[in-house]
Design the sequence.
């Protein structure tokens, strides 16, 4: 049966190819793959169980890791007064266009508008000032899992850019900058692990430029991912050292053993449901989602393949055999489902579970029943393997481990093939036009960064580029290397590209 006939028979499948219209493909894959449902308020989406289970996997991993660091979870209100929100000028200026305000209760106007949190620095830090008095109160390490609202005016995209999203936000306070610096990198490496070890998405760790750093902070570190089909970078997660700026604004100070009072050093760090969107964009194909086994809500689906020539007893034996396979997988703590529904054909089921990105399909037909075997089919590359029934759990786990490694390796290879080294401006825009990121020597002058944005936007139809990060892993920078924009002495290599 041809793929066209198969799609017609099952009434399933995507109708747009990634390479033809990526935006339309993405909209189809997140809805047909049962990740989201659209809502009647633009920029807000319903996360269906399939998507929320992935977020829970991320949450469970990250939460366990930060608890090892001594971080405690808490919850703070989602509302913040106008006075408190405006306490840190640079901070609120960075968020002002996105802040949503509550101005009315029933038919009555509120005496003063109340903001819905775009982030919680100004919600938490007045309280930190009450909790911290002595060096004995430090370090203070608080995290909360919550939703935030940022009233985006740009084109909303499920998971990638929405007006409400789920995240974790960590807020910590230390007695010294050295301690704060260590934690910034420690958390950033956990974000790297979420992307690379769980989601099989390669990221570049680095520091943001002064222009791109968190408003009101001292410096911002980031993990930057890349979507090859669009040639765009995407900020995956950020870990900020806030310095003492917020401590001064909210008078968060502690008394040393000597009796001297000092301001604390603070960090904040956050990871959002954007992680899910990045994973879909990097791994999805024209059949639907392709989910890494470690986060897939369902890891194996067992599909019995009945035959109309079988007697009722043989049909029953086939179903019983499939159930044994399913229970063997469950016993090995593998997330399995037995799809023995009689009202759908095996072809329909194959298409359905491929669309939802289930890593492994276990096919079990009459010949398999006789031979004591089953056929395992990988979602990522369609490779098939005959497996003995008694070995199914061990082999399924081994195949999923291979998948996890293979998916990351493929993504790394593709990403690396789309990074171009540029030494002069004349080569910059042509690299962007090939949907590449660029690594180039830079003088770190904010004015030249703005020049890059303007010139790249004017010279191409694909949009302007910006600095993504200054990677921690720096290639050698020979003495005398010139900035690719200004021609002045370069101080570092910087990763540039179009971005989401």
Sequence:
């Amino acid at each position: 049966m041809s793929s066209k006939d198969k799609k017609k028979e099952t009434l399933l499948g995507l109708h747009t190819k990634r390479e033809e219209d990526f935006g339309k493909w993405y909209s189809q894959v997140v809805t047909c793959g049962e990740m989201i449902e659209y809502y009647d308020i633009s920029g807000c989406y319903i996360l269906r169980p399939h998507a929320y289970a992935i977020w829970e996997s991320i949450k469970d991993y990250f939460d366990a890791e930060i608890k090892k660091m001594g971080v405690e979870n808490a919850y703070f209100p989602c509302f913040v007064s106008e006075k408190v929100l405006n306490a840190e000028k640079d901070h609120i200026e960075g968020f002002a266009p996105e802040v949503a305000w509550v101005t009315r209760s029933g038919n009555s106007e509120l005496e003063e508008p109340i903001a819905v949190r775009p982030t919680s620095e100004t919600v938490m830090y007045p309280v930190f000032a009450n909790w911290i008095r002595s060096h004995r109160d430090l370090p203070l390490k608080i995290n909360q899992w919550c939703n935030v609202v940022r009233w985006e005016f740009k084109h909303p995209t499920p998971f990638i850019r929405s007006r409400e999203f789920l995240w974790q936000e960590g807020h910590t306070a230390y007695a010294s900058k050295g301690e704060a610096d260590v934690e910034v990198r420690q958390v950033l490496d956990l974000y790297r692990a979420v992307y690379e070890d769980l989601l099989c998405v390669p990221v570049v760790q680095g520091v943001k430029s002064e222009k791109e750093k968190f408003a009101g902070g001292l410096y911002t570190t980031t993990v930057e991912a890349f979507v090859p089909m669009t040639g765009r970078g995407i900020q995956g997660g950020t870990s900020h050292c806030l310095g003492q700026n917020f401590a001064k604004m909210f008078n968060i100070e502690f008394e040393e053993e000597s009796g001297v009072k000092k301001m604390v050093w603070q960090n904040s760090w956050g990871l959002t449901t954007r992680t899910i969107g990045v994973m879909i964009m990097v791994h999805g194909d024209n059949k639907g989602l392709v989910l890494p086994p470690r986060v897939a809500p369902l890891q194996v689906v067992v599909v019995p393949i009945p035959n109309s020539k079988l007697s009722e007893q043989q049909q029953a034996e086939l179903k019983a055999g499939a159930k044994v396979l399913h229970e063997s997988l469950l016993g090995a703590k593998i997330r399995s489902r037995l799809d023995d529904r009689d009202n759908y054909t095996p072809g329909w089921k194959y298409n359905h579970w491929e669309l939802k990105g289930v890593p492994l399909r276990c096919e079990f037909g009459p010949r398999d029943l006789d031979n004591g075997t089953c056929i395992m089919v990988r979602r990522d590359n369609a490779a098939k393997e005959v497996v003995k029934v008694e070995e199914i759990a061990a082999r399924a786990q081994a195949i999923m481990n291979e998948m996890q490694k293979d998916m990351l390796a493929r993504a790394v290879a593709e990403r690396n093939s789309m990074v171009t080294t540029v030494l002069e401006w004349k080569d910059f825009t042509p690299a962007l036009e090939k949907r590449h990121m660029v690594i180039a020597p830079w003088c770190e002058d904010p004015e030249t960064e703005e020049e890059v944005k303007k010139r790249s936007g004017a010279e191409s139809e694909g949009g302007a580029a910006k600095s993504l990060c200054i990677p921690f892993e720096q290639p050698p920078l020979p003495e005398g290397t010139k900035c690719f924009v200004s021609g002045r002495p370069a101080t570092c290599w910087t990763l540039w590209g179009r971005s989401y």
